[in-house]
Amino acid sequence: MRLLDQLHFNGQLFLRHRVRTVLLLLAVGLGVASVIMLTSLGEGARRYVDREFSALGNQLLIILPGRKETTGGAPPIYGAAPRDLTLEDAQALERLPAVRAVAPVIAGTAPVSRGSRSREVIVLGSTSAIFQVRKMDVAQGKILPERARSEALAVCVLGSKLKLELFGNRRAIGEWVRAGDRRMRVIGVLEERGESLGLDLRDMIIVPVRTAEQMFNSPGLFRVLLELDANADFDRVEDRVRGVIRERHEGEDDVTLISQDSMLAAFNNILTTLTLAIAAIAAVSLLVAGILIMNISLISVSQRRREIGLLKALGGSSRQVRQLFLGESLLLVSLGSVAGVAVAWVAVLVVARLWPAFPLAPPWWSVPAAVATALLSGLVFSLIPARRAAALDPVLAMRGQDL
Amino acid sequence: MIELQDVNKTYLVGESPLRALRDVNITIDAGEYLSVMGPSGSGKSTLLNMVGLLDRPDSGSYRLEGTATEELGEEARARLRADYVGFIFQAFHLINRLTTLENVELPMMLAGISPKKRRQSALGVLEQVGLADRAGHRPNQLSGGQLQRVAIARAIVMKPRILLADEPTGNLDQASGAEVVEVLENLNREGITLLVVTHDAQLGKRARRRIRMVDGQIESDTGDGNAPAGSTAL
Lengths: 403, 234
What we know:
The complex is a heterodimer of chains A (403) and B (234).
Chain A: H1 3-16, H2 18-55, E1 60-65, H3 87-93, E2 99-114, E3 117-126, H4 129-133, E4 138-141, E5 155-158, H5 160-167, E6 176-179, E7 182-190, E8 195-196, E9 199-200, E10 204-208, H6 209-216, E11 223-228, H7 234-248, E12 255-259, H8 260-303, H9 305-313, H10 318-354, H11 366-390, H12 394-399
Parallel strand pairs in A: 3-10, 5-7
Antiparallel strand pairs in A: 1-11, 1-12, 2-3, 2-6, 2-11, 4-7, 5-10, 6-7, 8-9
Helix pairs in contact in A: 1-10, 2-8, 2-10, 2-11, 8-11, 10-11
Chain B: E1 2-13, E2 16-28, E3 33-37, H1 44-51, E4 59-64, E5 67-68, H2 74-84, E6 85-88, H3 100-110, H4 115-128, H5 144-156, E7 162-166, H6 174-189, E8 193-197, H7 201-206, E9 209-214, E10 217-221
Parallel strand pairs in B: 3-8, 3-9, 6-7, 7-8
Antiparallel strand pairs in B: 1-2, 1-4, 4-5, 9-10
Helix pairs in contact in B: 3-4, 3-5, 4-5, 5-6
């Protein structure tokens, strides 16, 4: 039997049983579409994180107070420090070779108000180096002055959203705001930029590190960010950093170092695993579609007993009958897969249009994997019905009797 | 040339075995016209299915055109069936979703013959049974007699040597039955071997060679299948 004839024969069957065919196409299509769309979400998350990290530049080293023994997994965010990481430690690190900039960070939250308007926001105490390290810039005014390294100046830089909340469209530079119990002058407004490493840069205030130290009454740094030379060797820098800390901390290098690469690798790992897990869950729907195909094929075989008997009487072999039934399922699954891929593709495009910030995209393997799973499931689950059809005794089948 | 030797076939009907064929010996030459008659359950349909390779004997041998069929596998038997045997059933067994032409083309499609050649042959045999103008109709648009003629066209489209008809007029009225019998007998006159299984004594008597079966055995066989056709009016 020719392939084209078989396709035609199966096609006529589909036209004859439209409802059944549409239902099966829907089941397969939805399965394929859900695999592709869900893996797109996972892949989108991975790309999002990837993009966020590379926006910072690659040569970033983060030092956290306290030692954390970590063997893979997520990096420690807060460490319970036996000894604080101090501003002096940070300043000592500046003298290391291959270190381009050191930004000490004290973080906390405080109400920031002007007149009757008040907001509770994140306060970041740092130096002018933070702007270089985190690739931030001001849209209006100036960044923190050099003197902010060591003096508790009463100045601040506002995030763009915070500025809008407090000042509306009026000029903010040179005006006074109250942060916690202190008054400080606004010297700059950050340019508009979305989140960075989970921190909403639009809704925060940056003050000199000494000022933050007094506000939160704590000498300990939240963390220290180092920007290294483009060709710096991380391991060597890490050794030197530990050396400096040991010298200053009575022989203990009680800090945790996180390089951007290791963090990125960890996130990548987690998100790729997550994407695969999502894909596996979505693939269950293809399994269900396969079982549906099996059920309906079994019904179809018993409904078409006479036809199967006839095909055999007309010279069709068992192999041909089996092929007809397998081909029917495979054709159905192929059509359903095409529909599913099309639906997923449109959905991804629509979502990308609605939320351009989220880089939604199917990973390269998701379409072939979804289609292959669908085909495999269709094939496996139609083996039994096809075998049953092929084994029908033509004489009894044509009499319409049970076997 | 059909040669059955000591063919036995037993079916299990529920718990008890039913001997459908007992030591059947029969030789049918090319071009014969024979009828098989007998009461229900006498094994005449089994004999027909055996000859048509739809059934396998439990014991005994069946040679079709010199080939020992009992040694062949399913594939080879299907091929032999496609090449040598045409079936006609009481219930027509046309596929409703296919047009007349597609129904007639079906055996050729299974055999993998090209669409162009198929169309030509199918139209040719439809012409032969007088239904060339119904090629595009579907079975539900045709009368019983027309349906059976389509089924005959389908049976002969592969140019078989043997035509096996199981109660070909069983579902038809007198007039349509007569038409169908005429078509079948014309085909026999052109050289095809025609084997008709029937309850209808009138139809049975028309055959040149008449076999009567009882309890799976051949009770009588006139054995002169190549004598002039019976002249009894239907």
